[in-house]
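Colleagues,

Please find the record for the two-part complex below.
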Amino acid sequence: MAEKDFIVTPWEVVGDVDYTELVKRFGTQEIDEALLARIKKHAPLHYMLRRKIFFSHRDLDWVLGEYEKGNKFFLYTGRGPSDDTHLGHLVPWIFTKYLQDSFGSKLYFQMTDDEKFLFKEKLSREETHSLAYENALDVIALGFDSKKTMIFADTDVIDFLYPHALEVAKKVTFSTAKAVFGFTNETNIGGIFFTSIQSVPAFIESIKQKKPVPCLIPHAIDQDPHFRITRDVAPKIGFPKPSSIHCKFLPSLKGSGKMSSSGSPDSMIYTTDSPEEVERKIMSAFTGGRDTIEEQKRLGGRPEICPIFSYYTFLFETDDEKLKEIEQQCRSGKLMCGEDKARLCERVKKFLAEHQKNREAARKQLSKFMAKKI
Amino acid sequence: MAEKDFIVTPWEVVGDVDYTELVKRFGTQEIDEALLARIKKHAPLHYMLRRKIFFSHRDLDWVLGEYEKGNKFFLYTGRGPSDDTHLGHLVPWIFTKYLQDSFGSKLYFQMTDDEKFLFKEKLSREETHSLAYENALDVIALGFDSKKTMIFADTDVIDFLYPHALEVAKKVTFSTAKAVFGFTNETNIGGIFFTSIQSVPAFIESIKQKKPVPCLIPHAIDQDPHFRITRDVAPKIGFPKPSSIHCKFLPSLKGSGKMSSSGSPDSMIYTTDSPEEVERKIMSAFTGGRDTIEEQKRLGGRPEICPIFSYYTFLFETDDEKLKEIEQQCRSGKLMCGEDKARLCERVKKFLAEHQKNREAARKQLSKFMAKKI
């Protein structure tokens, strides 16, 4: 792999991702000004749209067109429960809540406990199933509407998913799965089949209502290969192609790549981290600062490569003016990294104190959200 | 394929099967006299054992050893519901009933409606599911003990099967599945995964009783590749390897190969055939007879290549002495094919009249046998 090259698959993100290049590789569309203006007709533009954190899509224009005709879409997103939730996971979930609130959409939230069991050598079924419920607490803590939101672990509702997954699987050859996911002869046969299960939630409302219902899938762009298959198969089995809208990855505190669970635990902040852990991780993070204070004062910092600045951008400074101020202070050399980190620390700790409270309160709401039957 | 060559896979049987050669290819064991003597200690030898219709096994001696120690085995067999039941299917089922009656075994009977949907281009899920119930009538009609027998369609009990199938799938690479089943890049990803589902019933009692329970699988030898995988994976996921006992195929009335549903409908007799259809199929069947009556009288018939004689052997003459008599009459040139066919016709019609009556009566018993929950 050349130094500037990168890999993005549903199971691996390596290198510094060039998102313009990725859009070309995956064949998605960038969200342009015209599309933003169209969204703005229905809802105030979320900062993640204004900042191009959600930057790419497939057929978002179509799903909006249907909405404008009175044909409401439902939302589908999910999580692979292989570990505790980290702040990077919250990015698409917060945006999904914005979509639910703005468009009044039903949401199906899939916890792929089966997938994580199949792809993580060391995890047992019991562990991934239990993590599904732990991760669900973070979803619920964000304030989703329980009347419009159903969360499920795949193995809990497999009676519904499996028959429809068979319909998908019948239309996907190993050859296709290999090309899309990079499978080899050593991939296990469950992993090969799994994408069929991830397709099904895109059809739930069409199945339930017995008519085509548009679906919009907000997700981090690494999951796009799955939905490429879903979109290819959908019309062959009588369903509309789901639309999708894609976000970038919250960068690693170590300065490169996705905040992936396979990376070092210090490269990311878990929603369950203590204030001390938050402090330690942030204070030891990589930044866009210079080697000496003198240099930093003279040349200014580099927010474009700084994970601390990304944390503000993705999550912790939602006011555009204030974000611009931070950026200018940094670039001008007025803001030192220590100070910048300390301020972020306070915001993250404050956020997590509140989130952890909501997360514990969510335990009582689990039964309202977690479906055993679709 | 050379003229004398043959292919046996779970989905295809082509050519005249050389069973001695097949045992070598598959790596199973022939059932020898010592093993027959051991079975005889517990039960009168079934004619299918005496005649080597059930001729091959894996670890049958082990499962008998466990039985002798008081560790009872349970039975597992099944059917791929792609069509109506034909007489060839009844062969292993009749033998399974003998095992249940003789050893007091529980039986799990799997209807692989998912498999048949995945492998039969033209069948819908609704069709294979409905065929599962139609085929179950034939099983019930044979007189299985409802207290000891559970029949299920995979999609009805997938909530139980799927989590355990994941355990199997995680241990099987595409490479292995390819080698065992001859899959190609064009095989669909559901077909690749399916063998995991066929493995699970071999573990049901071990799962339910939370301790290792021996399992014996009576089946036609074409299904052996599935159970080779099951046996390979079992100890890796904490279960005993199932034992198996294998039968030959009832030959086609057209004179070659397995009575496969993919062959012509005239090459086999369905359990739902009318007396007229039975007559037409048998009277137009291939035989081991000679070209002219004169020749037949002079040289005698050839029961060894005659499907009519096979029908007597497999199903319609259970008395060894009487079977020998038929064989001698045929070989000596005393018995003409027309007469032989007419007698078989009467027996098949009589059998089917009774079976069809039991089959209809079985509709009322479906709910006692068909499980929606394991």
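Residues 337-362 of chain B form the longest helix (26 residues).

Comments are welcome before we finalize the supplementary table.
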